[in-house]
Design a protein that fits this description.
Helices cover 44% and strands 14% of the residues. With 200 residues, the chain is α+β, with helices and mostly antiparallel strands. A hairpin with a 3-residue loop joins strand 5 (180-186) and strand 6 (190-196).
Amino acid sequence: MNKQVNVPKYRELINPTFQSLHELGGSGTNDEICEKVIELLKLSNEVIDESHLGSVTQTELQYQLAWARTYLKNYGAIESSARTVWSITPQFSRKEVLDVKKVMAATGKKKVADHPIINEDIIAESEKPFEAKQWQEKLSLVLLQMDPYAFERLTQRLLRECGFDDVKVTKKSGDGGIDGTGKLKINGIFSFNIAFQCKR
């Protein structure tokens, strides 16, 4: 008879998932979140390796984390991009701990993303040059006024959106050296280590 492994359920993983995103700089991939949760909860290899219903592609922990992210998304605390990079929404950026009961209660209520949509004003730049210019000037102003460390976190997020994994900011700006590291996997086979500097 196989020994039953007690893998944390999604309810228990809601705050660890949220905390993981905070520690990852506000955003992270599924794998990065999973690794950080393992680190925070000090999970054993037995728990980490337990498969979901005998699956060879998904562990029980990955399955439970997927549900935790779903509940957090329905609550409006996190959102995901087209490349499945999860990030904490602005209204929850200063919160460190969430009320799990409220998060659970929010599931089933459809939430509408609160972020701006880049539409034809930007795509059809030649047709609306003035509007496009205004948008570019506003973006440039925001970037120039941004706190140096916030700019590093933005760079970290952009690299994740471009397909980089394990992206870490190592030091704050002004150190004259490497600001962060990451990995780029090509075709799921080749993996390259990268280092980056944040320059405006």
